[in-house]
Amino acid sequence: MERFQSEALFSMLEAISRMNNREMSAEIFKIWLAALNSHPFEEIKNAFNRYIQTESGMPAPADILNILRGSEEDLALAALIKVESAMSRYGSYATVVFDDPIIHAVIPELGGWVRTCRLSENEFTWWKKDFRERYQHHLRYGTLTNLPPKLLGIYDEKNLLFGEKPQKPKVVGNYDKAIGWVSKLSNPESLSWLKKNAPEKIASSIKDGI
Length: 210
Fold this sequence. Notes:
Elements: H1 3-19, H2 26-36, H3 41-54, H4 61-69, H5 72-90, E1 96-98, H6 101-109, H7 113-117, H8 121-141, H9 154-159, E2 170-172, H10 175-183, H11 199-208
Parallel strand pairs: 1-2
């Protein structure tokens, strides 16, 4: 956040504090700044405006963060729509990398990418319910461990066993976000396809076929 933006944030918090007979000290502002610093300033302003229009009382940082992140249900639905779009566009033969790491946690729990793409209409109805529930659980508790950096399609599932070269994976969503979360994986086994988890190496791998 730029200095002029942090000053504007302080002024906004100071005004809201006065509305609620509170004082905005430098120490309290540091807590707010640490909580919100990673979010774009325009989104922060919009979140405060939404809070003021719908709630009463002095907001806590968690209140604004919840607005910024969106509701768990909304985020789970957006992720599901992204998965359905990838299924329709790429199908079960393609290996995919989503820009959302939680998707990489949920799909393996539900049988993997290939199984997901092969579900019947009736099975998929129940699968979608399970997906949303599991997505919200991971979102709420942050239980993301042993994430696979890619979700294997039929081609790679079969042919990698025989030492054949993997196909180029399809990146679903924002390319930079996909590179970003994969580069932060701490599980060495998840990154066995790289000697170092440097973003530039991952970018090259996704372009050329991981």
